[in-house]
Automatic annotation (TrEMBL):
Residues 93-282 form the NodB homology domain. Residues 1-18 form the signal peptide. It comes from the Bacteria. Residues 51-62 have a biased composition (Acidic residues). The keyword Membrane does not apply. The keyword Signal applies. This is Polysaccharide deacetylase family protein. The lineage of its organism: Bacteria, Bacillati, Bacillota, Bacilli, Bacillales. Keywords: Signal. Pfam families: Polysacc_deac_1. PROSITE patterns: NODB (PS51677), PROKAR_LIPOPROTEIN (PS51257).
Length: 291
C-alpha cells in the first residue's frame, strides 16, 4: 500500500514538472551540476537557463576571467602559436584576440569596443606609432582598460634583413619605450610579418617575452578590407578569396587583426559571431609568461 501511494506521488510530481509550472528538486540539482561544470571549464557550450543568452554568457565569461587571473592555465604553442590549455580547469574552446600595428588610428576605439564586450586582447605596438604625446596617451589608456601590451618592434622592419645589432635595437628599445609609458615591459613579442631569426627568438627569451605569430587573420588581404566580408571570414575561419577554403577556426586559434578602419567596424560582429559558435575569448593574463 505504501508503495502505491509513493508511486502516485511520483507520477503527480512528474506530471507537474512536465507542465513546467514548478521547479522540482531534479531540475535544481541539474542546475547546480551545470554551474559546477561551467566553473571548472569542462562545459564548452552555453546552456542559458531561465536567462537570456547575453547575460548567461556574461556570467560565464566573468567566472572564467576570475578563475583565469589567479594563475596561468594556457600556454602558447611554439610551433603553431595556438593557445593550449595546461590546466584541466581551462576551457578548451577559446580563441585569442590580437591587434597589431598599434596605436595608429583605430586602436583606442577598438579597445573601447572590446572593453564594452568584456573581451580581453593583446595589442601589439610599434615604436613609430609612439612618437606623439597623443598616441602615448592612447597606449596608456589601452593599458589602463586592462589590455595586454605586446612588442611588435620599433619600426615594423623585416627583421631577417637587419644586422643583429639593429634587430636588437628594434626590440629592446621598444620595450624601454613601453616601460616609460605604462610602467611595465611587454611580455609578448610578435615579429612583423611573423619573420623571426634565431637571434630574435633568443632575444625575446632573454627579454622574458613569449614569442607568437598567429593562426589566421584576413584584414590585410584586399578582398577582406570590408567590414562585412571580414566578419564572415573571421567568424567562419574561411577566406576562399585568398585561398583558404577550409576553416581555420578551431579551439586555441590565435586571431590576427590590425588597427584598421574595416577591422574596427567589424570587431563587435566578429566577437558576436565567435560567441554564437560557443567560443570564449582568452584573457592574456591566463597565458603562461616567462617571468
Ligand atoms: Zn604588423
Amino acid at each position: 500500500m505504501k508503495n502505491i501511494v509513493w508511486l502516485i506521488m511520483v507520477m503527480i510530481a512528474l506530471l507537474m514538472s512536465a507542465c513546467g509550472d514548478v521547479t522540482t528538486d531534479v531540475e535544481e540539482e541539474a542546475g547546480q551540476d551545470k554551474e559546477q561544470e561551467q566553473t571548472t571549464g569542462k562545459e564548452e557550450k552555453e546552456q542559458p537557463h531561465e536567462e537570456n543568452e547575453e547575460s548567461a554568457y556574461q556570467e560565464t565569461q566573468d567566472e572564467q576571467n576570475q578563475a583565469d587571473s589567479a594563475e596561468p592555465v594556457y600556454r602558447i604553442d611554439d610551433e603553431t602559436s595556438s593557445v593550449i590549455p595546461i590546466d584541466e580547469k581551462a576551457t578548451e574552446k577559446v580563441v585569442l584576440l590580437t591587434v597589431d600595428d598599434v596605436p595608429d588610428k583605430y586602436a583606442l576605439e577598438m579597445a573601447r569596443t572590446l572593453e564594452k564586450l568584456d573581451a580581453k586582447a593583446i595589442f601589439f605596438v610599434n615604436g613609430h606609432f609612439l612618437d606623439t604625446s597623443e598616441r602615448q596617451d592612447a597606449l596608456q589608456q589601452i593599458h589602463e582598460m586592462g589590455f595586454e601590451i605586446g612588442n611588435h618592434t620599433n619600426s615594423h622592419s623585416y627583421l631577417p634583413d637587419l644586422p643583429e645589432d639593429e634587430q636588437k635595437e628594434e626590440i629592446v628599445s621598444l620595450n624601454d619605450t613601453v616601460e616609460d609609458i605604462i610602467g611595465e615591459r611587454p611580455q609578448f613579442f610578435r615579429a612583423p610579418n611573423g619573420a623571426n631569426t634565431d637571434f630574435t627568438r633568443q632575444l625575446a627569451e632573454d627579454e622574458d617575452m613569449v614569442l607568437m605569430n598567429w593562426t589566421y587573420g584576413y584584414d590585410y588581404f584586399e578582398p577582406y578590407m570590408d567590414a562585412e566580408k571580414l566578419t564572415e571570414a573571421m567568424v567562419t575561419g574561411k577566406a576562399p578569396e585568398v585561398d583558404v577554403p577550409h576553416s581555420l577556426l578551431k579551439p586555441g586559434a590565435n586571431l590576427l587583426m590590425h588597427d584598421r578602419e574595416w577591422t574596427a567596424a567589424a570587431l563587435e560582429d566578429i566577437f558576436s559571431g565567435l560567441r554564437d559558435k560557443g567560443y570564449k575569448i582568452v584573457d592574456p593574463d591566463a597565458i603562461q609568461t616567462r617571468e
